[in-house]
Structures are given as structure tokens and as C-alpha cells.
Design brief:
The structure holds two protein chains of two kinds.
Chain A (H helix, E strand, L loop, with lengths): L6 H22 L14 H12 L6 H14 L6 H15 L1 H6 L2 H25 L7 H26 L17
Helix pairs in contact in A: 1-3, 2-4, 2-7, 3-4, 4-6, 6-7
Chain B lengths: L8 H28 L1 H40 L1 H36 L9 E9 L7 E4 L12 E3 L4 E8 L4 E5 L6 E6 L4 E6 L8 E2 L12 E4 L11 E7 L5 E5 L8 E5 L26 H12 L1
Helix pairs in contact in B: 1-2
Classes of the chains: A mainly alpha, B alpha+beta.
Chain lengths: 179, 307
């Protein structure tokens, strides 16, 4: 499947990597988020979900795994766990991408919010089971809420600035196949 | 959504599902490996950070500087108030300076009386803060000094005034400092006038609480908190901050280090303290000196006479 992908798709995959690098880079800037500040939104998660619902072929599972693993490594999370949860979540959304094309945005947003909540709860559960130190519940719920609120913004920017939109019915790719 | 069966995706789908399952399994295995044998994975992580973050630094510097400039400009805008404020502070400082000078003289006299020798081996390496760890739940920074400069895990880090954190994770050219505010940070401290020992445990707030205080009544807000050196990891006597009472009534520590501006940090070279492993043994009297020439010497004299 991958070797058949037209150059346009590869360009978008590159763009996704670039955007992810930008988000990570902004996170790493030594501008200092003080302890106890409001946690920022998890833009990378929004980006992955928005793109996987619009054009699943732009964000293959391996790419998502690599990028989130790098994030895990750089921001000192337990490596692999969050990545695995995100891969499962994006696979869930990927199998419903066709469904998401036919529903209004509000419904899609609700679905994404549900999946995000499930990822956070799953992560907290796994961390509890592994008996690792836990972030306070209030803070992670706050971050979840902010992330969910950020999702429409990420979708809007993806559509307007990068042209990642849901394919219209009957649209074909460069090889003339139905998308 | 009717898909035509000729699409190649329909045939690769089960294979794909297995591959994704394998991917998830590999990731979970990595997590388990980290949980079981975290030093090895952490070493890999340090190497990765070592590789990735410095390659960002060319772009980080201008943005950080620009943000600092905006900050400075904002303070420039209210320069008059600031001037007044500074004058007031200067007045207070003069009073403090006087007090400090007197205290210094007194301290010098007392040290002289006691003939205390401060640890002469406590030297430091200064590093520049490269990057924040980024996540709101992890309070740590990266320094641009690493194993190449002789940095080792566990060393204490200070800014000009107070303790900032400890080294945790050393790469070839970078090292990570876990700040005192991080939820993984536990530092043994002494509260100064009363000498109470406690544990300063970070909890992701800007003022970490004091735990395991023996007598809370002896500790008052405003008391000085210094590191106690228990456990032999940290040098003793480094300034940590002041005791303050939080709104919830818990005793917290207002940190002396300026966490808003962590630019240059000093990493203190601490040397492992000698351990006393055994209980006291019997001390024998020194061996009695032998009387007469040693047998070896006698032998050489004999051979010299022969020759």
C-alpha cells in the first residue's frame, strides 16, 4: 500500500512530520511553564485525530507511532505507553473515517471528545496499575478539556491552511481510484 | 459507502490489522521493559535527547531571546512605577546590607572561634539552560554540560542563590536537572533555627510542601530551609528557601532560586562521602619496634664484604 502512494500523499506525510516537529519544538522552548500553571492543550493529539478522520492515508500508523514515541522520549513520559494508546485510538478512528465523512462536525467533535477522554482514562489506569507516580486528576482533566476545545481550531487550520479536508463523494486520487 | 471490491485495500486489511497489533505490542513491551529495567531505557533516552535537542538550539536561541525582549519591553512600559519600586527596595536593601555586614563579621568571628574548615572540594561547573522538558507535569530543564564535562547523576544544581534541583540523566553533552518542584523530587532538608529535619517533596506546585516534620510547632513561617546532607547525596547547608504556610495550612517552602529565570545553573561537584561500614573494631597497640639490625640488611652487608 505504501509503495503505491502518490507523491502528494508523501508530501502530506512530510508536512505532518514537520508540524509535529514544530509542536515539539515549541514545547521544548525554555520559556518555562512554571509548576502549577495551566496545562496547555495536547496539540499533537488533536492534529493526529483531525488528520486521521480526514485523510487516513496521510497519517499511517507507523508514522504516528514514531512521532508519539519521540514525544514520549523528549518530554520524559514513560516510553511506549501513551504511544500505544494513541495508536489504538487512531486505529479506532481510522476505521470510522468513512462514517465521519457523512456526519456533521458536531457529531465528529463529540466522537473525538469521547475518544480523547478514553485515552486519558486508559493512560491513567495503566499508570495506576504500573504503580507509577500520577499527575493529579484535576490537572489531567483540565488538560483534556482544553484539548477538546482546541480540536475545532486544529481542524480549521488543517482545512484552510493545509487543505486537509474530507474527500468529497466520488473524488479520485492521482491513480484514478476512489478515495 | 459502497466500496468496490477491486480496491487493493480490501485485501491488505487483515494483514494491516495484524501489523498494527504487533506495533502496539512492541510499544507496550517497550513500556514494560522501561518499568522493569528503567536505567537502560533512560540511558537510551538521554542519548536520544542528546542527539535531538542541540540540533534545535539554533532555532531556540532567537525565539527565546525574542520572548525575553517582549518581556523586557513590557517592563519598559511601566518604567516609572518600576523606578519607584526599585527606590523603595533599595532603601530596604541598604538596611539589610548593614545587617548582613554585621552578621558576616559575627559569623567570621564565630567560625574563627570554632576553627571550622568549610569543604574545600566543593567546586562547580556552570551550564546554560538549553531547553525545558516541555510537559506541564514534568518540571525539569536541560543543561548544555554533560558526561564530557564530568557531570554525574545526583549532583546538586543551584542558581546564584538557592538550590534548583538535582542532575538526573546525563548525556554526552547534555544533562537533565529535575527541579525541586517536580513530583519526583525528594530532598532531605533542615529547617534552620530549630534544626528540624524534614523531606521537601515536590508536587508540581511552585511551593513544594515539607513532609515528615517531627514537631510542626517548632517550625514557623519565615524560617530558613537548607539542605541537610542526609543520605549522602547532597552537600549539606545549601540554601533552599523559606518556610511559608499555604492556604490549606500545610507548611510549604518558598524557594530561594528564581524559577522564572533559569538561565545559568551551577552544578556542584559533590564527592562521595566516606562510608563507615563496620562497627567499631578493637584498636591494637602499635607493633613493638625490633631490636638489632634487620635480617635483610645483614645479608646485603655480608655480600658486600664478600665482593
Amino acid at each position: 500500500m505504501a509503495e503505491l502512494a502518490p507523491p502528494m500523499v508523501w508530501a502530506y506525510r512530510g508536512l505532518f512530520v514537520l508540524l509535529a516537529a514544530l509542536v515539539l519544538f515549541l514545547r521544548l522552548l525554555p520559556l518555562g511553564n512554571l509548576a502549577g500553571d495551566w496545562p496547555g492543550p495536547n496539540i499533537l493529539l488533536c492534529l493526529a485525530f483531525a488528520w486521521v478522520l480526514r485523510r487516513p492515508d496521510y497519517v499511517p500508523a507507523l508514522l504516528i507511532a514514531l512521532i508519539f514515541l519521540l514525544e514520549d522520549m523528549l518530554v520524559m513520559r514513560p516510553p511506549g505507553l501513551w504511544t500505544a494508546i494513541v495508536v489504538v485510538a487512531t486505529e479506532f478512528l481510522r476505521s470510522r473515517a468513512a462514517l465521519a465523512r457523512s456526519v456533521p462536525f458536531m457529531v465528529e467533535w463529540l466522537m473525538v471528545a469521547g475518544v480523547m477522554a478514553a485515552t486519558v482514562i486508559g493512560y491513567r489506569l495503566a499508570v495506576t496499575i504500573a504503580m507509577l507516580p500520577q499527575v493529579s486528576l484535576a490537572q489531567s482533566l483540565l488538560q483534556l478539556a482544553i484539548t477538546i476545545l482546541c480540536y475545532p481550531v486544529v481542524v480549521l487550520v488543517s482545512q484552510l491552511a493545509f487543505g486537509v479536508r474530507k474527500p468529497a463523494t466520488g473524488e479520485v486520487d492521482a491513480y484514478g481510484r476512489r478515495i | 459507502m459502497a466500496r468496490d471490491r477491486s480496491s487493493p485495500e480490501d485485501f491488505t486489511r487483515p494483514v494491516r490489522r495484524i501489523l498494527v497489533g504487533l506495533l502496539v505490542l512492541v510499544l507496550l513491551a517497550l513500556f514494560l521493559l522501561w518499568r522493569i529495567d528503567s536505567p537502560r531505557v533512560e540511558r537510551f533516552r538521554a542519548a536520544l535527547v542528546d542527539r535531538v535537542v542541540p540540533s534545535f538550539s539554533w532555532a531556540m536561541l532567537p525565539i527565546t531571546k525574542a520572548a525575553a525582549m517582549i518581556d523586557d519591553f513590557q517592563s519598559y512600559a511601566r518604567i516609572y512605577e518600576q523606578n519607584q519600586e526599585l527606590r523603595r527596595e533599595l532603601q530596604q536593601m541598604k538596611a539589610w546590607r548593614e545587617a548582613a555586614l554585621q552578621l558576616e563579621q559575627k559569623n567570621a568571628r564565630l567560625l574563627d572561634l570554632n576553627q571550622v574548615r568549610l569543604d574545600p572540594r566543593l567546586t562547580h561547573v556552570t551550564g546554560v539552560v538549553l531547553a525545558d522538558s516541555g510537559s506541564p507535569f514534568r518540571q525539569s530543564v536541560l543543561l548544555n554540560v554533560g558526561a564530557r564535562d564530568g557531570i554525574r547523576d545526583g549532583w546538586a544544581t543551584m542558581d546564584g542563590i538557592g538550590l534548583v534541583g538535582r542532575i538526573s540523566g546525563v548525556g554526552q553533552t547534555t544533562s537533565r536537572v529535575i527541579l525541586l518542584t517536580d513530583s519526583n523530587s525528594r530532598i532531605p532538608v533542615t529547617v534552620q533555627p530549630s534544626g528540624q529535619k524534614a523531606l521537601l517533596s515536590g508536587d508540581n506546585t511552585s511551593a513544594p510542601p515539607l513532609e515528615f516534620l517531627e514537631k510542626q510547632d517548632l517550625v514557623r513561617p519565615g524560617d530558613r530551609v537548607v539542605s541537610s546532607g542526609d543520605g549522602g547525596v547532597f552537600p549539606a547547608g545549601l540554601l533552599v528557601g523559606q518556610v511559608a504556610q499555604g492556604v490549606d495550612g500545610r507548611l510549604r517552602v518558598r524557594l530561594a532560586a528564581d524559577y522564572e529565570r533559569l538561565e545559568f545553573l551551577r552544578v556542584l561537584r559533590s564527592h562521595e562521602s566516606e562510608r563507615i561500614g563496620e562497627p567499631g573494631a578493637l584498636i591494637p597497640p602499635p607493633a613493638a619496634p625490633m631490636i638489632g639490625p634487620e635480617p635483610a640488611e645483614a645479608l646485603t652487608e655480608d655480600s658486600a664484604a664478600d665482593g
